[in-house]
Amino acid sequence: MNILTFFLLQADAAAPKAGGGYSMLIVLALIFVVMWLFMIRPQKKKQKELDEFRNNLKKGDKVITIGGIYGTVDEVKENKILIEIDKDVKIFVDKASLVKDPSDVK
Fold first, then answer.
1. What is the pLDDT of residues 70-104, one digit of tens each?
2. Nearest partner of 66 among 97, 105, 104, judged by Cα
3. Strands across the sheet containing 89-94
C-alpha cells in the first residue's frame, strides 16, 4: 500500500456524509424568526408610533427636535412645523425632525 492510497482512504473516511441539508435550513429559518421577533417587529412598532405622533401634532403641543430643541408647536403645515422656542423666537423645522413629546421624558 503506497502513501497516496493511504491519504485517499483517510480523506474518504473524514468526508461529511450527505443528508444534513434540512437541519441547516431549519437552523437558518429559526435564526430569521428570532431576528424578526426581537429586532424587526419592535422597530416597526416604534416607527408607527412616531409617525402617528408626528401626524397628530396640533398648535400648543410641546415637542423636542432631533437637535434637542424644546418648543411649542405654533403652526402646522404639510411637511414643516413652526415651533416657538422662546418668547417671540420661532423657527421652522421639518416634521421628520420631531422625535418625542417632552412629557414622555423621565
1. 999 999 998 999 999 999 999 999 999 998 766 66
2. 97
3. 89-94, 80-86, 70-76, 62-65, 98-100
Domain match, 87 and 103 both: yes
Judgement on whether residues 63 and 52 belong to the same structural domain of the protein: no
Q: Please give the C-alpha separations between residue 68 and each of 20, 57, 85, in angstroms, as whole numbers.
A: 54, 18, 11
Question: At residue 78, what is the residue type?
Answer: E
Same domain, 39 and 66: no
Q: How does pLDDT run across 16-45, given as a tens digit for each residue? A: 555 567 888 888 899 999 888 888 899 999
2 φ/ψ angles, rounded to the nearest 5 degrees: -95, 175
Here the CATH number for the domain that contains residue 106 is 2.30.30
Cell of 101: 413629546
- Do residues 50 and 63 lie in contact, with contact meaning Cβ atoms separated by under 8 Å? no
